[in-house]
Amino acid sequence: MDFWPEFLASSWGREFVAGGLGGMAGVVSGYPLDSLRIMQQHSRSGSAMTILRRVIATEGPGALYRGMGAPLASVTFQNAMVFQIYADLSRACDPLVAAKDPPSYKGVALGGVGTGAIQSLMLAPVELVKIRLQLQRKSYGETQPTNCYKGPVSVVKSICRTEGIRGLYRGLTITVLRDAPSHGVYFSTYEYMREQLHPGCRKTGQESLRTMLVAGGLAGVASWVCCYPLDVVKTRLQAQSSSSPQKYSGIVDCFVKSVKEEGQGVLWRGLGTAVSRAFVVNGAIFAAYEFALRYLCNNNGHGTIQTENTG
């Protein structure tokens, strides 16, 4: 009966709950744009608006939320671990910084890179399932999707049956190559921008809601821009299954063939959608995370959140 009070009294427990709430806020707010991005990356042609109109006309708005169960089901644990790992690594990477001071920018960058590499182990299977569901289509005149996946569990069973457990980690290498540097950029940008927008807030922890939304949004945009070509390659590799012809044999082969067949622009296809989504999602993630964490810490007299920008 005392589990929750004791759990929330610990730093790890508060990080877990706050990280989970932040992650869920990000998934719900940005999932339709994420589906649109995946469709653009996998498509050979068509603007975001053309694809959006076609999907809504043939399948309805609900198609943009297809596959959301997989990230929602895992996001609490994943996001909690990401923020907890980052907090520990950012300190460990620069131990000369006093405990009462915020981590140095060096620690933030290195901690972010390590966090991205570690979280890829959790993220790769989830994104694989999500991509398979997002790319599932109803052909014109058909009432059932061509792949007939009924949900995340159906996709997992299909992959394990045809490709084995290793099949769930298709695209792991490219996920690590994408997420390690992008997380370094992500956390560095957030910490730098929040300090620029609200000087002194890294030490006081009293930035405004507007600062969190803008800094979080810009962090998301920066992290996507720096890794986007790798994300295009990852989508194409994870969209392949053993039951269909293998167009790409690996990362380099996918990169070379994609550029040769569709031009260099293919590596940036869907970037506008991804950037728009990134700003919304990551603003929501950091705002929800900070609100939840400070609410949970409130009884202990920890920081407060300002609703007006005092900087």
TrEMBL record:
The keyword NAD does not apply. The keyword NAD does not apply. Keywords: Membrane, Mitochondrion, Repeat, Transmembrane, Transmembrane helix, Transport. Its main location: mitochondrion. It is a multi-pass membrane protein. GO terms for molecular function: transmembrane transporter activity. Solcar repeats lie at residues 10-92, 103-196, 207-295. GO terms for cellular component: mitochondrial membrane. Pfam families: Mito_carr. It is found in: Mitochondrion membrane. It comes from the Eukaryota. InterPro entries: MCP, MCP_dom_sf, MCP_transmembrane, Mitochondrial_Carrier. Belongs to the mitochondrial carrier (TC 2.A.29) family. This is Mitochondrial arginine transporter BAC2.
